[in-house]
Amino acid sequence: MLARIETVSGKPLDLTLTTNASLLARKAQSLRDAGLSRVSVSLDAMDDATFRRMNDVDFAVADVLHGIETAQAVGLAPIKVNMVVKRGTNDAEIVPMARHFRGSGIIVRYIEFMDVGASNHWQMDEVLPSAEVVRRIDEVFPLAPVQANYSGETAERWRYRDGGGEIGVISSVTHAFCGDCSRIRLSTEGRLYLCLFATEGYDLRALLRGGYSDLQVSNAIAQVWQGRTDNYSEQRSNPAVRQARAERKIEMSYIGG
Ligand code: SF4
Fold first, then answer.
1. How do residues 62-80 score in pLDDT, each as one tens digit?
2. Scanning 5, 97, 169, 232, which has the fewest C-beta atoms within 10 Å of its C-beta?
3. Does ligand 1 lie within 6 Å of residue 195's CB atom?
4. Is there an atom of ligand 1 within 6 Å of 29 CB?
C-alpha cells in the first residue's frame, strides 16, 4: 500500500525497513515484491557471544548474514548495516566488521552509543567517539572522507582508499547534528514524534478518525514541525536536561531509529 504512494512531484517513495534480520531470509523476496526498496540491518558484532551480549537475542550472527545475503540476492539495495559501538563491549568488533563487509557493496555504519529510551543504562564513558572508530579502521584499511549525499545526512561518509567501498559514522553524541535534523517519526498507533528523545507525540490518528481532509492533516503536521525546538543531543552534556528526561523517553523499538 505504501509503495503505491507517490511524492507530490510524482516520484516513488524511498521505502526502507530497519530490521534485526531474524526473519529477513524468509521475507526478503515477498518484501521486494511488495515494493520495498532497501533494508538497514542491525548487527553489532561478527562474534556470536558479543552479538548476543549486545542484543539479548537468541539467534546467531550467521542468521543475520544469511538474511543480508538473501536481501542482496533479491535486489534490495543499497543495504546498510548498523553497528552500535559500545566501548568495552563490542569495540573490538569494529575492524572485523569492516573487514567482513569491505568489497561487498554493503555500507557499515558505526553509531555512537546513545541514551535512547530509558532501558539501555547509557553512560557517557561507554561512548566510543566516531573519530576513534575512523582512526582504528584507517590504521588497517586506509580511509578518505567523502562528500555528504545531501544536506542533513546523518552519517558522515568515508571511503576505502583502495576502492573497497565505503563506511559511515554517526556521531550523535560527540558531534550532534540537531540543526540539520529532518527526521520525523510516526508510531504504529498514529502519534507523531519530532525527536528520538521526545517524551510525547502528537495524536494524528484523532485527526484521521475525526474525518479531517488530507490538506488539514498536512497543515497540522506542518504546524507541529514549524513549532519544533528539539535539540536533545546538543543538550545531552547538561546533567539537569538528562535527568529531566531520564524516565520519560520513549523506547526506540516503539518509534523506529
Ligand atoms: S536529538 Fe532529536 S533533534 Fe537532535 S538529531 Fe537526534 S532526533 Fe534530531
1. 999 999 999 999 999 999 9
2. 5
3. yes
4. no
Between residues 255 and 113, which one has the greater pLDDT?
A: 113
* Cross-strand pairs, 166: 159
Quote the CA–CA distance of 50 and 54 in Å, as a whole number: 6
Q: Say if residue 58 is exposed, middle or buried (CB neighbours under 10 Å; 0-12, 13-18, 19+).
A: exposed
Chain centroid offset of residue 104 CA? 20
Q: What pLDDT does residue 257 have?
A: 66
Instruction: Give the residue whose CA is nearest to atom 5 of ligand 1.
Output: 178
Q: Which residues contact 249 (CB under 8 A, 6 or more apart)?
A: 115, 116, 117, 118, 197, 198, 199
Helix (H/G/I), strand (E/B), else coil: 6: strand
Could you tell me the pTM of the whole model? Answer: 0.89
92: alpha, beta or left? (left if phi > 0; alpha if psi -120 to 50):
alpha
Which of the 8 DSSP states describes residue 127? B
- Report the 10 Å Cβ neighbour count for 87: 16
* Domain range annotation of the chain: 2-175, 183-255
Residue whose grid cell is 558484532:
45
